[in-house]
Amino acid sequence: MAQMTMVQAITDALRCELKDNENVLVFGEDVGVNGGVFRATEGLQKEFGVDRVFDTPLAESGIGGLAIGLALQGFRPVPEIQFFGFVYEVMDSISGQLARMSYRSGGALNAPVTIRSPFGGGVHTPEMHSDSLEGLMASQPGLKVVIPSTPYDAKGLLISSIRDNDPVIFLEHLKLYRSFREEVPEESYTIPLGKADVKREGTDLSIFAYGAMVQESLKAAEALEKDGYSVEVVDLRTVQPLDIETIIASVEKTNRAIVVQEAQKQAGIAANVVTEITERAILSLEAPVLRVTAPDTIYSYPQAEAAWLPNYKDVMATAKKVLTF
Amino acid sequence: MTSNNNLFDPVKNLQEIEEKFEMVQILNENGEIVNDALDPKLSDEELVELMSRMVFTRILDQRSISLNRQGRLGFYAPTAGQEASQIASHFALEKEDYILPGYRDVPQIVLHGLPLWKAFLWSRGHFVGGQIPEDVNVLPPQIIIGAQYIQTAGVALGMQKRGKKSVAVTYTGDGGSSQGDFYEGINFAGAFKSPAIFIVQNNQFAISTPRALQTSATTIAQKGVAAGIPSIQVDGMDPLAVYVATRDARERAVAGEGPSFIETVCYRYGPHTMAGDDPTRYRSSETDSEWEKKDPVVRFRKYLEAKGIWSEEKETEVIEKAKEEIKAAIKQADGVQKQKVTDLISIMHKDELPYNLKEQYEIYKEKESK
């Protein structure tokens, strides 16, 4: 075991997989000798060579095409998109091509590609760096979308993503890269995709969250405990497919729920969670399922982030509304 | 205003570049060798085989159009006129080469090993049409214009990493050369020096939009300069010129010298697709008849007849065989089971189905059992 930040856990997962499987290739803009703009691939090119870990020209669409072509030659590509706001340049390769590889070949071909990409607000990035666009990916049949919130989850989920034989979008929250350390095993381990994790048990209210909103929800849960409420916090970890079993079991226990996301209300995946709950557990509900989200504007100018991004106070306020409905 | 600084003449720079991309031809319209130095000197057997494949493809086009009109085929993009460009380029390839076709490039993948009945199923819109046999190195035809180019850069890089002596080959049209993925594809392959052959079949029109409206560049071939890769424009109605350009590009690629770019100047006699396109709206009959004089099948026939290795009887024999093969393939396609929603769910993932699809599988299985 070692104390790792999330970005160290990610590097460690990549190292484990590069070592375990010679078909794993890591590539993208500045991921080689530079070790990535956030040091996520630090030291990997030195350890595994330029044949396994390499830089590409500056073109996201080309990177997507490269991944698809390499997958067709039996490789297991792990490309990086420098910031997920740049995904628009590579939407066809992801949604139009990768996601459909198995289907359009009648199951004859597959695309074991894991796209890593940072996103998320709170660190005053310039335009199009912090946008939460997981909702776009989650609505594309054929993709799995994974968003870890802790170093331990990040390593286990990334190893699972790389080993998955279908395309996975692995989104890394910028604010969580180095915000805290956690015990992480040095050897390989996996966490199943599509499995949520109860980060805190409670009996009065379920909070479903992912990404940076997990920490905000835990903070809110702690504060609510002082007011006498027992709050359960469920980290979705995979936002497509959802872990219906864990979500519904939690709602059936607490009878009240909110869903917390950093994305705008019209984006993200919170509406999917609400719908699943109302379709499957409406008779358990003592109050409507409310959402905590950002407002439906373009992502905030950096100086307005503090006012724009949802935080633990918003979680508390919405939780109280549901608790006192 | 023109610059009076005679050391700086961008207009001359452009002219000099464009002059370098003059169209290469080996066999003229009358079936005569006009460039003996470039003649690939194929054996009689090879020449007859190439001609047979071109005739097969012309018949396949005629039959496909007619089957489409009868409602026995679905999506179809006519190929007549492009036989030299499509078939002679494929003739320079080996079995281990990988083809990433566009939507008009069905003949190449059929000749590379995709069973014809599967090609017909692809046209109709049946998933079995996309089930490429394991030993056949092709993708199903690509509908997103340009996507096949960036993917080719990836397949070629994969071959390079595996140490294979093979190439990745892809095709797009003149309109496709305006796409971003077109440029990114040739540029990536160039930067990685990977074994790829990029072919633009310039058939003069992208649906109704003429070639001149795509770009002010005089040739499409010169776009290869932007990627720093060897590029050439050939007479796309001349099977020998197309063959030589592809063969040479392949040799350079497997020798580790990187990708090449080929523009074939050709023409499609038919409409863009059979989905209601009417070329008389945008093409004059004069243009059509001008290009009909350049017909690749006609000029190659003349060439082979003059050599005494092709005859009317031989051609009839090829045509009859093609018709029989097509008939058998349509019959085989007819016999394939109808698609069910549970089939579509089953082919979504290589690994286990996610919960939502598992649930929906059960729902549709129940529906289908009634």
Automatic annotation (TrEMBL), chain B:
Coiled coil ranges: 312-339
The enzyme's E.C. designation: 1.2.4.1
InterPro entries named in the record: Alpha-ketoacid_DH_E1_comp, DH_E1, PdhA/BkdA, THDP-binding
NADP in keyword set: no
A Pfam family it matches: E1_dh
Residue stretches making up the Dehydrogenase E1 component domain: 52-340
Keyword Oxidoreductase listed: yes
Reaction(s) this enzyme catalyzes, per UniProt: N(6)-[(R)-lipoyl]-L-lysyl-[protein] + pyruvate + H(+) = N(6)-[(R)-S(8)-acetyldihydrolipoyl]-L-lysyl-[protein] + CO2
Transmembrane regions: none
Needed cofactors: thiamine diphosphate
Enzyme class: oxidoreductase
Record keywords: Coiled coil, Oxidoreductase, Pyruvate, Thiamine pyrophosphate
Highest taxon of source: Bacteria
Subunit note: Heterodimer of an alpha and a beta chain.
NCBIfam families referenced in this protein's UniProt entry, alphabetically: PDH_E1_alph_x
UniProt function note: The pyruvate dehydrogenase complex catalyzes the overall conversion of pyruvate to acetyl-CoA and CO(2). It contains multiple copies of three enzymatic components: pyruvate dehydrogenase (E1), dihydrolipoamide acetyltransferase (E2) and lipoamide dehydrogenase (E3).
Name listed for the protein in its UniProt record: Pyruvate dehydrogenase E1 component subunit alpha
Organism: Kurthia gibsonii
Gene: pdhA
